[in-house]
Design brief:
The chain is of the alpha+beta class. The protein contains 4 helices and 8 strands; from the N terminus they run αββββαββαββα.
């Protein structure tokens, strides 16, 4: 029996289009399937079997918000930390409610960038840090050249 056949054996389809995992689940509610003597999260296996690629350390987001769902059409790959910023999670609400960076610069479209973890970054602060680094290198290089 192939992995895909084993996966579908543990699925019941809902009216909403979710493929609900009926096999064993972990403490967070995600389905688990055993492959080569190791348990894997069923939604990730389903996504890969459907031809999806999951970059290292990236996560799978359930568009339907159902953790048991293994329907690849309901799944997408997102960068680390992105999932925590979705929905009504306390962390998401706290971060998104901030209108200014810790140095008092306003988060506007023009002054807001994103890092690799999808967190907001103040462009003014980033520019200031780059200037400070440049000045430090300039001072350091000047002392080296003069000695």
């Amino acid at each position: 029996m192939t992995t895909g056949e084993r996966l579908l054996k543990h699925v019941s389809k809902s009216e909403e289009g979710c493929w609900l995992w009926q096999g064993c689940r972990n403490s967070k509610g995600y389905g688990l399937i055993k492959i080569e003597r190791k348990y894997r999260r069923a939604h990730r296996v389903s996504f890969v079997l459907a031809g999806g690629i999951i970059p290292e350390k990236w996560e799978i987001d359930h568009l339907c918000f159902v953790r048991r769902c293994v329907n690849p059409a309901h799944l997408r790959v997102v960068p680390p930390g992105f999932n925590g910023l979705q929905g009504n999670a306390r962390t998401a609400q706290k971060l998104l409610s901030r209108t200014h960076c810790r140095h008092g610069h306003e988060y506007t479209d023009a002054n807001t960038g994103r890092n690799t973890g999808n967190a907001r970054r103040c462009r003014t602060c980033c520019r200031d840090q780059e200037r400070a680094r440049y000045q430090q290198r300039k001072i350091y290089d000047g002392k080296e050249a003069g000695s």
